[in-house]
Design goal:
Length: 228
């Protein structure tokens, strides 16, 4: 069951089996390799970063405590095969690793949306870890944990949200110098209302980059409506 953090004196009594959640909902995956699949999103509360383009600031605070068993029950109720654990920054809660393992054990196709500022090695390798490397214009570039790159497998994904031409050139440098395309799938995504999708697409084609272009499908359908 879910319990409100402000009215649950027992919240710390069994902390080892709880996570603080902002929402659980069914939608279409709007990004990365699983785009278009009906997906259950488990949005954890809290994030240590403050990216300028963040569209989920409502997940920074508040939330409810959920038992991990209850999360699994709610996920199952939606009847989808794909599950995405997101935030906020889900890895900021240590028990996120337990949830990821439990979801994999239950047979779901699991992805994790993470900022790349925290150690991804805690996540089950059955999970497709989508690491959002922060560009200079995100305001959080210095938070990138570059040691994470050594953890990447072909099952994982790297994403760059491009806010400007400067960001694009920086991201190109990272891809080429670090050989990111040889590690896993690399995505370039235009920051909503900062870079025109067509402009970014033209840059990628002109430079013959070994990356995949994406726009956020869910925003095309529902804008910034929470829970969609």
């Amino acid at each position: 069951m879910a319990t409100d953090i402000d009215t649950a004196p027992e919240a710390e009594a069994d902390a080892s089996s709880r996570l603080k959640l902002t929402e659980i909902f069914l939608s279409l995956q709007g990004e990365a390799r699983d785009a278009g699949w009906p997906t259950v999103f488990v949005r954890l509360t809290g994030c240590p970063l403050r990216c300028v383009y963040c569209d989920t600031a409502y997940a920074f605070h508040g939330g409810q405590w959920w038992d991990i068993d209850a999360i699994l029950e709610e996920v199952a109720r939606h009847g989808a095969r794909h599950v995405c654990v997101t935030g906020g920054e889900p890895l900021a809660q240590k028990r996120c690793a337990v949830l990821l393992r439990r979801l994999c054990d239950a047979g779901y196709v699991v992805s994790l949306e993470t900022s790349g500022a925290l150690d991804i090695s805690v996540a089950d390798t059955r999970v497709s870890r989508i690491v959002d490397l922060k560009t200079p214009d995100s305001g959080e570039c210095e938070r990138n944990l570059w040691d994470n790159l050594a953890q990447l497998t072909a099952h994982d994904q790297v994403k760059f949200v491009i806010c400007s031409r400067q960001d694009y050139e920086w991201a190109v440098q990272q891809v080429r110098e670090r050989g990111l395309d040889r590690l896993c799938t690399v995505w370039f995504s235009p920051s909503f209302a900062q870079v025109a999708p067509r402009e970014l697409a033209d840059w990628i084609l002109a430079d013959h980059l070994p990356v995949r272009f994406q726009v956020q499908l869910h925003k095309q359908l529902w804008g910034d409506e929470p829970g969609r």
